[in-house]
């Protein structure tokens, strides 16, 4: 018997039939003897609708369109999850499963005061644990908690993954199952590479790289939290037939386990290839090579909340000037350009060049820590396909390469096969 948190996202609870399907998944786990808590999102599209209402109300009431009250935003926008939690509890009860809904404040899941983008401070799981011990299923509204001002706080869009992980940590669950519209984490995007394989296990660190690099299965923050608290995450499909899955201990249903490295026996050099589109490259030419220059470039960008990603600086030839290249999201390019323009004198560069529409392709794997030649393999694979590399950055477990977007597919496919990630073809 295990203690489980099951999380279902918006598409999995999009209508009453799907909520019934979710209830069948939950019932199966409860019937197998597990202690179960469920975290739900709002029905697909609901949160957007609520946000839209929040935005329109001031205008309708004759106020300035920019009027905004973060506490009321939270009161309104959190309501989507309240509805699904209640509906799922009813569905479960209708099927003979003892179940009760819980809102963030009832647990309580305590947050800071940053309404609209609150961070979780603590989860007191005592009541839920006590009821789970009596066989009751707890159905928890995701995305919300209670702030020190005693008001509802939401965790930022996509926050119900984070709710689920925080709850799993708070009740010391053995596993947190993320039911979603895909059946796991793949070696790369299967829509781009039909040969992509589902991974059985991925380490937290790798998942962080894969999630933030564009494998949009999990909110990055939830993976960080899972890693910090050692919460094992299992990504699986909510569209699988609920009754055809074996939930007994030791059975392994289809999905991907995200866990600590020591739970992964055989580590491949490379686990996956991620890519992120819509990157813009900015190059400052002939920047003075002296202390304080990088701070002069990136300080004002940070103040303007421009998200800088790759940063490459060359060593200057004669110690006077150098080149500096970095990337920002396409959407931030104009802002970045004007920030740089206004701090031009302070920085002292000669030309600023920028190119939107770049793609960052990343090779990820904890195995590369202990293997030489992983980067060289990538460069050779891209060279063989005639793909030009604009910038390279590396960390212990990843190599990121900036290329023109026209080559994205070619590059991802080439890298995927050169590291042996392609699915084995039937002979
Ligand atoms: N319903 C919220 C949103 O759409 C939270 C979530 O789905 O994770 O952002
Ligand atoms: Mg979501």
Helix-strand blueprint:
Blueprint: E1 3-8, H1 16-31, E2 35-40, H2 46-60, H3 70-77, H4 79-94, E3 99-102, E4 109-111, E5 120-123, H5 126-133, E6 137-141, E7 144-146, E8 152-154, H6 160-170, E9 175-180, E10 201-203, H7 204-212, H8 220-229, E11 233-237, E12 256-259, E13 272-288, H9 293-303, E14 311-313, E15 321-329, H10 333-342, H11 344-347, E16 351-364, H12 374-384, E17 391-395, E18 398-404, H13 408-418
Helix pairs in contact: 1-4, 2-3, 6-8, 7-8, 12-13
The structure holds aspartic acid (ASP) and magnesium ion.
The site of magnesium ion has 5 residues, from loops.
Taking pLDDT < 50 over at least 5 consecutive residues as the criterion, the unreliable ranges are none
**Reported CATH architecture of the largest domain:** 3-Layer(aba) Sandwich
Rg calc:
24 Å
Strand content: 25-35%
Q: Please name the fourth-level CATH homologous superfamily of the largest domain.
A: Acetylglutamate kinase-like
The helix count comes to 13
Estimated structural class: alpha/beta
List of distinct ligands in this structure: aspartic acid, magnesium ion
Overall structural domain count: 2
Biggest sheet strand order reads: 3-6-2-1-9-11-12-10
User: Could you say which overall geometry the principal axes of the C-alpha atoms support?
Assistant: globular
CATH C-level class of the largest domain is Alpha Beta
Report how far apart the termini are: 41 Å
Largest β-sheet summary:
8 strands, mixed
Mean of all residue-level pLDDT scores: 94
Number of strands: 18
CATH topology of the largest domain: Carbamate kinase
Helix content: 25-40%
């Amino acid at each position: 018997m295990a203690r489980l948190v099951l999380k279902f996202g918006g598409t999995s609870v999009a209508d009453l039939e799907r909520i019934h399907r979710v209830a069948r998944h939950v019932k199966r786990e409860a019937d197998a003897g597990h202690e179960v808590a469920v975290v739900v999102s709002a029905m697909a599209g609901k949160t957007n609708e609520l946000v839209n209402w929040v935005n329109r109300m001031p205008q309708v009431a004759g106020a300035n369109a920019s009027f905004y009250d973060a506490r009321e935003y939270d009161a309104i926008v959190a309501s989507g999850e309240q509805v699904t939690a209640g509906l799922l509890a009813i569905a479960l009860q209708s099927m003979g499963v003892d179940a009760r809904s819980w809102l963030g404040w009832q647990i309580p899941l305590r947050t800071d005061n940053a309404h609209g983008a609150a961070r979780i401070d603590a989860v007191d799981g005592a009541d839920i644990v006590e009821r789970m011990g009596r066989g009751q299923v707890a159905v928890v509204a995701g995305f919300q908690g209670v702030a020190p001002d005693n008001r509802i706080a939401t965790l930022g869009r996509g926050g119900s993954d984070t709710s689920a992980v925080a709850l799993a940590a708070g009740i010391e669950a053995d596993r947190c199952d993320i039911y979603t519209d895909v059946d796991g984490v793949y070696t790369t995007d299967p829509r781009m590479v039909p040969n992509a394989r589902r991974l059985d296990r991925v380490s937290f660190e790798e998942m962080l790289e894969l999630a933030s690099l564009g494998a949009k299965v999990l909110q990055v923050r939830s993976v960080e939290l899972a890693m910090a608290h050692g919460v094992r995450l299992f990504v699986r499909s909510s569209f699988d037939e609920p009754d055809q899955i074996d939930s007994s201990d030791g059975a392994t249903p289809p999905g991907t386990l995200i866990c600590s490295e020591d739970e992964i026996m055989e580590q491949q050099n490379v686990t996956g290839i991620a890519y992120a589109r819509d990157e813009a490259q900015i190059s400052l030419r002939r920047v003075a090579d002296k202390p304080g220059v990088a701070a002069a470039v990136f300080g004002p960008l940070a103040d303007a909340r421009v998200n800088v990603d790759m940063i490459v600086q060359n060593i200057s030839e004669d110690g006077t000037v150098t080149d500096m290249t970095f990337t920002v999201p396409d959407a931030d390019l104009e802002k970045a350009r004007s920030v740089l323009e206004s701090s031009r004198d302070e920085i002292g560069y000669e030309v600023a060049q920028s190119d939107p529409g770049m793609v960052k392709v990343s090779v990820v794997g904890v195995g590369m820590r202990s293997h030489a030649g992983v980067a060289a393999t990538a460069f050779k694979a891209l060279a063989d396909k005639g793909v030009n590399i604009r910038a390279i950055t590396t960390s212990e477990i990843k190599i990121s390469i900036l290329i023109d977007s026209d080559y994205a597919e070619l590059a991802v496919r080439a890298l995927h096969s050169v590291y042996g990630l392609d699915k084995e073809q039937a002979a």
